[in-house]
Amino acid sequence: MSSLEAVWVQPYERPGAAVVTGVFDILHVGHVRYLRAVAERGLPLVVGVEDDPRVRAWKGPTRPLNPATERAEVLAALRDVAGVFVVSGPPEAHGPEDYIDLLAPMRPGALAHTAGDPHAGGRCAAAALLGAECWELEAIPGRSTTRIVNAVNGG
Q: What share of the chain in percent tops pLDDT 90?
């Protein structure tokens, strides 16, 4: 049993959605283009936002800049997004088996990620075990929250 929990901000209860998860700390054009590209593949789009303690453990004490509830609210306002949930649980719970247990009740039709995602193999393995497709989409070059944060901080 996974120690991850989906805390719904904008519920979506029908099976077959395309699911993406991530931090989405400062929403930028790379996020918008990626989410639109996932939605354009024809399945409803459901987004999982990693909670604050998980992000802090992975990216350091100054992140996230925006709380998970606000990041989720911003994503829920996008017309391409059908549902949004916050991924809550211990930071060390980030393997495929954790996400399989989290996502199985949603019965996703696809799991999407960007090219170069260090967890792509795990995401595709999870998709296969969930009976879902695994979609890899190109990242938007030069567009990332880390780049924005570094630029603001003079780096």
A: 80
8-state DSSP, 47? E
**N residues, the chain:** 155
Which two structure tokens, joined as six digits, stand for 87? 């991924």
Neighbours of 9 (CB within 10 A): 18
Distance in angstroms (rounded) separating the CA atoms of residues 122 and 105: 18
Token match 């354009």: residue?
A: 40
pLDDT in tens, 97-151: 999 999 999 999 999 999 988 888 889 999 999 999 999 999 877 766 666 666 6
Prior bond of 15 cis (ω within 30°): no
Q: Of 49, 57, 52, nearest to 91 (Cα)?
A: 57
Residue 56 makes CB contacts below 8 A (sequence gap 6+) with 63, 64, 91
Give the span between the Cα atoms of 49 and 92, in whole angstroms. Answer: 16
CA distances from 12 to 22, 23, 47, 108 (A): 18, 19, 10, 11
> What is the C-alpha separation between 73 and 21, in angstroms, rounded?
15
